[in-house]
Design brief:
Length: 693
Amino acid sequence: MRLWHKLAIGSAAGILLAVGALLVLDAADRAFPPPLDKAAVVSPEVLDADGQLLRAFATPEGRWRLKTVVADVDPQFLRMLVAYEDQRFYDHRGIDIWALGRASLQFVRNGHIVSGASTLSMQVARLIEPRAERSFSAKLLQLARAVQIERRLSKEEILDLYLTHAPYGGNLEGVRAASLAYFGKEPRRLTVAEAALLVALPQLPERRRPDRNLEAAQEARKRVLDRVAVAEAIGDGEAERAEAVAIPSRRLQLPALAAHVGEAALRKEPLVLKHRTTLKKQVQQGLESVARAATTKLGPKLSLAMVMADAQTGAIVGEVGSADYFDASRSGWIDMTRVNRSPGSTLKPFIYGLAFEQGLVSQETIIEDRPADFFGYRPRNFDMSYQGDVTVREALQLSLNVPAVKLLDAVGPSRLLVRFRRAEVRPALPSNETPGLAIGLGGVGLTLKDLVQLYTALANRGQPARLGDGVTGTPAKIDGEPLLEPIAVWNVADILSGVIPPAGAPQRGIAYKTGTSYGYRDAWSVGYDGRYVLGVWVGRPDNSAVPGLTGYGTAAPILFEAFAKSGIATTPLPRPPAGAVRIAQAELPISQRRFALNASGLLVASGREPAPQIVYPPEGAHIDLGAKGGDLSPLLLKLQGGRAPFRWLANGKPLPDLSRRRTQQWLPDGGGYSKLTVIDSAGRAASVGVFID
């Protein structure tokens, strides 16, 4: 009995000692946890709208360490990694006892290390807590850390840390950074040869760097492929084929797109590691390739900027802030998409749009291009010559200055700026000056981003879109009244789509306008199709003059090439809205055949105050308003001449209100013939008969 009593006491003491030891170890584990917080330090990334990497920024210590998880990597690479580095990875708890015993026995027999026993968990411990010395105590600490890591993390999370921190030579860390640097691609799809190289490099990353020691890299890859476990993981014959594949001998630059947007993203949210933008990688690559090519032709100190936006959503899909971010001679660090400059003639389409909307002109209306004096303001054409009598269509396509100023004088500069405010764009006026006629020729300050925002209305049937900053958020259409009515927008697009492309540029089915600011300081070109707007600016950031710089000769070729290189298929321009037609000059009302103003600013045909004249719809016109479908659209009515206020009648019934405007909308009761009449305050009347289809 005494013997059993002693054994019971001994067993109890042993259990107590074991429990005590476990408690001590647990307390030590809690008191001295592994430095997993250091593992969270990775490179900030800037991504496109689809999650593709645009650029990364180095960690504070200068490392390219891109966060990588198991889902980011080819499964075959993971199988090869485990087969080569740690075959019992999914079975042990941080320490592979069998491998440790084998390595110890081999060391005793041979007097030196024959094979290692380091598990992937132990390697992670070494990576997140590196130690310079290779001592027995350092190895014991690594073993302890591996056990601690296994207690806290799942196997997949441990693999995530290895994939993020494994060294690949120089300042490359992690599988993603290595795959991008050596193969130019993300590691989601790797060949057997590529995967084997990425498995081999971390053991001796500096000695095996393929860009510095190609033979060592080849030998290391061969050892991986020759391992029996690896061969079983990849299948018969794959190793032999992979050994025949050449190894890349140079290191590529990691993606470095959208420098200015990337910097803005970091300033906006400095603690965020992944910044999702609205940019499209394919578009951004195309625009930047065009910018690099253009830089070699532009000459010294010249820069350029581009903004491409979705006119329906306002999302910026491509943005280039300068010709070269790192070129100090071009002040490349300045984001020229956000700098106010004179827009030259790029605002003329909106002047013409207002004139179309108010019924002042049609495309075939004759307007004079001759020297004119507007109370001391004497605009001149770019080439200092004059064309004489031209049609409104020709005047806009040729970007003639005098006709544009005449139309702006008629519609009013203040009214033009009011329309710009509908697009949430407020051009900068000279200090203490009211809006004047110089606006039409670029006498205001406007950013490239604002200009593109205005043009989204022309690509979107008059409804502008609010452009985002390219970094976060989803912009949208601007609520409220349209910048221009759809018929006016169609007239402008119909004219601008007929402008001849620059020499050598293909016809892409886009409408575009160019502009050159006073003194050859800024060259502009803005183009759009039925979905996207692209704006281009060229000039010197210091606002110096550049002789020979023009919108048509300098910016327009870049515009067409950028559209082509963006990779976006051309979307057809919007179809003509109901009632939109191009009327031949001979069929125009008398008052619209020639544009002229009397001393009072009234439109005249022959020097006397004109009677009212309905200019749209024309007499006898068949207008498709959707009568067959039963859902009629309103008809836009326009008149010239007469004295406000005006009373409109449809089929003898007066419309509800008197109007001082020369435009009105009427919703027919149904299809068929209708007679429209307008009466001015002097009792003069005009009528037309139309057919509603």
